[in-house]
Structures are given as structure tokens and as C-alpha cells.
User: Which sequence fits this backbone?
């Protein structure tokens, strides 16, 4: 009976490069809700393998939560000589258009245009099938006048091939408008995570106590958490420097992640007892990392931090957040003074001020965490599904 019912649902083809931990739960829920029929087409076929080398993490990465279960998907052969999602010629699928035609969808949802096959598909189907587009680019990275002008021309050309843009937040919406997308074609589809998986109150208290003890973190210390790739654009070296300068205050920084700066950070701050480096942690381990912390700090420069999903994760765990204005999520998720602080990415003195204030006001930090949890409830996969389903319902 279920198969019979699905035959009469509108069909959505979803085009994306490879399975990631933030999209797979959304695809699963969209399929399980049974309001539309979907098939996900992965265009970086080499990445379907169990592990792949991540150049930023500097190691093989195999996510420990299922990414290919409970929704229909296909891997489309990628014939690129240099396969990958970091460059335009890394995704070349000669059979993609025909594969999508065989599915005969009512609409297509494309994740990312800056791949040869994705842009080719958008151009081919424009005017034939409605095209939804998902991307989280922003205008936060600073550019010269000439570069900005050229970028605008290119983006106007690209986005004339879509019908609907699903924007993640205010900075992303501004980008789409800069690219020529009309207001009537813009739909708010919030960046989301599996909020329930990160809720700190689901973690057994003894696990939190044991981990803090194993890390030699004094109970009275304010525990800052940095979670992400240890790269220059994250300002992680500067954050460690700030914490090292406050070694006489009750504060600890837990750095979770790996990347090109990992070895240098460990060497330069090995004598600093207030900084702990845990290395890369997989998805199953991350909720506990948030649970033991008090404040997430994301001090990124205005370079390629289009959102910062660790902010979602920390807020779902009921934590306060300090983030720079280089993070795409900051304007949407952080209410200044209520659940955290936003500071200018080039003003690390202001970051230090916020940290010192939080050390002295632990009760307020706890209140901020409770506020974070309230704010993040609307940023859910369920609401994302409703947005897509609404658009599909109105497609004739």
C-alpha cells in the first residue's frame, strides 16, 4: 500500500556531492514524512567509499553515524580526473542528466552550483522543471570593488537558472539578493542539525564528571570549547593566546578538532595547563564534549565561515556562545547579551573582554545557555521539510 501511495506523490530529485552528517538526517525525515517522493543523487561517487581523506582534518574520516540509511539514493559515476568537491572540475557526471530524466521529477533540488555537472544540469532543466537551490554563501568575506563587480556578473548568470533559493539565514539571503534572486523566489530554510542528539540533559551526569576529571579540569573553572578544523581562518591560535594570558584566572579551553595548525598549537601551548587538545572527535562523541563545556567560542576571520554549525550544536546542548561577525550564523542565532556575544573578527580584545565577563558571571552564563536552547528549537529538520513540501505543493 505504501508503494502504491508514493506513486501519486510529487517527486523531488536531490543533487548533492556526497553524504554529510548534516544533510543525511534531513533526507531521511523528508522521505519518512511521505508528503513527497525523493531520490538523492550523489555526484562524487568516489566519496561513497567508507573513508576518505579530509585535507583540512589531515586524516582519513569515517563518520560514525549512518549517512546512507532510510532514504532512497543513487551514486552517479564521477569521471573527473581529479575528483573532489573543492573545485569546479572535480564533479563530472556524464550520465547525470539522463539519470534524473529517468526519475521524471516534478522538481530538482541542487546543493551547490560550482561544479561542472551541477551547473550543466541547472542550465539543461531550466524552463523544463522547477529548480530549487541550496547554498550558504555570504558576502562577509571582504573583496575589492573590481572583484565584487565581476562576482556579481557571474552570480547573476548562475542564478538566472534557478526558480527558488532556499536561504539559511540573513547573510545568505543578502548574498542571493546580491546575485539577482528576487524576493518572491527566496524561502527561509534554516540551517539545522539533529537538535535532540546534542541535548546536554540526555547525557548521564557521571560521564560529565568522569571526563572533566580525566582532563584535569577544575570544577570551578569556566570551560570554553572550540570545535572545528584547526586552520588559520578560525583564529584558533589567537584564541589560545588569549586563554594562555589568563592562566591565573579560573578558565580552561578545550580544543576539539584537528588540522594544519594542530602540531604548532600543541608545541606552542604545551606548557599552558589551561588548554587541552582532544584531537578529532567523531559525531557520537561530540554531544559529551558540548555537555561538559560552558561556552562555545568560534572566533573565525571573515573567510569562508559561511555558517558555523557548531553554534547550532552548542545551542542545542544549552550553551552560551561567543562568535565573531565573520560567522554567517552569528546574526541569526546570537542575541547580543541574551545567549552570548558577537564581536568584530579583527577585535580580539573585545573577545577577551567577553570571556572575562563570563568568568565573573557564571550564573548569567547558565541563563544564556537556557536562552540558546529556546532559540535553536526553530532551527530544525522538521521545519526544513515543511519549507520544501510547501514549495512542492504549489508546483503545478
Assistant:
Amino acid at each position: 500500500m505504501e508503494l502504491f501511495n508514493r506513486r501519486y506523490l510529487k517527486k523531488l530529485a536531490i543533487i548533492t556531492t556526497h553524504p554529510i552528517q548534516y544533510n543525511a538526517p534531513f533526507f531521511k525525515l523528508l522521505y519518512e514524512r511521505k508528503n513527497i517522493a525523493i531520490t538523492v543523487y550523489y555526484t562524487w561517487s568516489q566519496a561513497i567509499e567508507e573513508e576518505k581523506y579530509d585535507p583540512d582534518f589531515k586524516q582519513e574520516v569515517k563518520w560514525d553515524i549512518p549517512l546512507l540509511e532510510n532514504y532512497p539514493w543513487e551514486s552517479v559515476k564521477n569521471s573527473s580526473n581529479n575528483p573532489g568537491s573543492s573545485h569546479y572540475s572535480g564533479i563530472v557526471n556524464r550520465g547525470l542528466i539522463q539519470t534524473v530524466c529517468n526519475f521524471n521529477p516534478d522538481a530538482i533540488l541542487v546543493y551547490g552550483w560550482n561544479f561542472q555537472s551541477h551547473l550543466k544540469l541547472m542550465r539543461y532543466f531550466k524552463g523544463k522543471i522547477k529548480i530549487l537551490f541550496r547554498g550558504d554563501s555570504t558576502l562577509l568575506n571582504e573583496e575589492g570593488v573590481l572583484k565584487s563587480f565581476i562576482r556579481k556578473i557571474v552570480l547573476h548568470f548562475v542564478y538566472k537558472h534557478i526558480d527558488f533559493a532556499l536561504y539559511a539565514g540573513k547573510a545568505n539571503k543578502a548574498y542571493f539578493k546580491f546575485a539577482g534572486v528576487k524576493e518572491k523566489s527566496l524561502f527561509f530554510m534554516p540551517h539545522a542539525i539533529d537538535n535532540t542528539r546534542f541535548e546536554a540533559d540526555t547525557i548521564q551526569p557521571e560521564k560529565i564528571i568522569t571526563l572533566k576529571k580525566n582532563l584535569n579540569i577544575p570544577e570551578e573553572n569556566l570551560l570554553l570549547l572550540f570545535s572545528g578544523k584547526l586552520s588559520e581562518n578560525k583564529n584558533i591560535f589567537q584564541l589560545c593566546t588569549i586563554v594562555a594570558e589568563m592562566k591565573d584566572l579560573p578558565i580552561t579551553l578545550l580544543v576539539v578538532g584537528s588540522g594544519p595548525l594542530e602540531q604548532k598549537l600543541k608545541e606552542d601551548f604545551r606548557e599552558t595547563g589551561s588548554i587541552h587538545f582532544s584531537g578529532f572527535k567523531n559525531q557520537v562523541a561530540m554531544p559529551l564534549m558540548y555537555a561538559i563545556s560552558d561556552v562555545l567560542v568560534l572566533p573565525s576571520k571573515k573567510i569562508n565561515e559561511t555558517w558555523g554549525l557548531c553554534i547550532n550544536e552548542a545551542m542545542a546542548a544549552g550553551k552560551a556562545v561567543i562568535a565573531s561577525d565573520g560567522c554567517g550564523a552569528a546574526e541569526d542565532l546570537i542575541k547580543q547579551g541574551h545567549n552570548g556575544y558577537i564581536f568584530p573578527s579583527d577585535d580580539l580584545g573585545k573577545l577577551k573582554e567577553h570571556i572575562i565577563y563570563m568568568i565573573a558571571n557564571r550564573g548569567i552564563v547558565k541563563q544564556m545557555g537556557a536562552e540558546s536552547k529556546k532559540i535553536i528549537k526553530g532551527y530544525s529538520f522538521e521545519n526544513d521539510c515543511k519549507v520544501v513540501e510547501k514549495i512542492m505543493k504549489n508546483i503545478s
About this structure: The chain has a mean pLDDT of 93.
